[in-house]
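Hello forum,

I keep getting stuck at the same step: I have a sequence, I want structure tokens, and every attempt I make locally crashes halfway through. Rather than fight my setup again tonight, could one of you with a working pipeline run this one for me? It's a single chain of 412 residues.
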Amino acid sequence: MRIRKSFLIKLVFIRSRRVFGFLLLNLILVSACRLVSPSAPSPTATLDRSPTKVQLGPTWTPEQSNMPTSKPTPKATSTPDPCDQVFFDPQGRLAFSLSNEGNDDIYIMHSDGRDVTRLTISPGVDTNPSWSPSDEMLAIESDRGLSFGETDILVIDLEGTILHRLGSPASVETNPQWSPDGLSIAYSSFRGGISSIVISDLDGMEKKEIPSPYRWNIQPTWSPDGRNIAWLGNEGTSGDYLFDVLIYDTINSTSTILTEGFQAYPGIYYAWAPDGEALVLSLYRNRISDIYMVDIATRNLIRLTDDDARDLEPSWSLDGEKLAFISDREGDYDVFVMNRDGTEVRQISFTKNDDQFPAWSPDGKYIAFLAKTELSGDVIHIADLDGCATFALTDAISTNVTRPVWSHDLVR
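Reply #2:
Ran it on my machine without issues. Output:
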């Protein structure tokens, strides 16, 4: 069943036996002809400024999704409707940053909204967390103790203790990304009008700058086997917001332009296939952006979406069989899921404003994303793959919320 925007889904959660982390969800579908009044808004709560467990607001409050005003006559089939019964049991943890009362800090929480923990308490900005492969550490951006406009890459443990500083003096270090073996971190470093991709060991003592034909190089991403690093590069000309995608071979120490003749938006708009043989990315052409897959060995491009909308931010499922992305084909930006060959596209988010940064759960059953609100803040949501329901994990009073990053583990 494809859910659009006219009926109201009312979801009631009953949590029992919290020690075992078991969640029971009863789904109640209310048809439009019986709907007499809108449901009451969820209560809000202010952020507890304590340094450990905090409450961000009404967690696991159902987002009011909508359904079509009229249902088509169902065809005779023995296949059950996936939305007849919805059972949510997401596993793993989410890391993110948000600003409340003027401070940008790092948080982690269980993917069902429980156990929200603030890891950093800094008068400055701590943001953009990245999980280590062991899920025991985070690499983050921070400006603590630095001059205005400078940022550093810090490695912290899950108690917020700083273990390492990687950055260089008088520079802007951004977008830390762990190598798959957990021994190195790649990041973007801006100094003297030039932005470079740097690979550093964890104590910051050994660093290597990746060679590039461009002056502006940002957003590195490791291949799953750790051999290659992809990143975005351009000449750094004022007003030039489109980038080429490049690949660096760490074994041969060579760089290659992967998408010469095409250009990509900056942002988290490309991702490695789990087998490391391809990248999926959003390429811009004729004022339209579509999702493409590019073979690393041959550099052949396969177009996966072909419409008049803007399709952005593709993300692979961990089994490599499906892709999530955002598109404005229905008006505002919503999250969509499709097969890796571009077939069976379906919408899974139905919030009232733009959604962005879809991230797959470790087991591939759910997608977390950011949803803009009527207020100034963004809210982290989680959705199932059938588009049956969407749940808000944070409240709308926080600002500067960064994209949620899922841990590698499946803790309950």
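The chain has a mean pLDDT of 78. If your local run keeps crashing, start a new thread with the error log.
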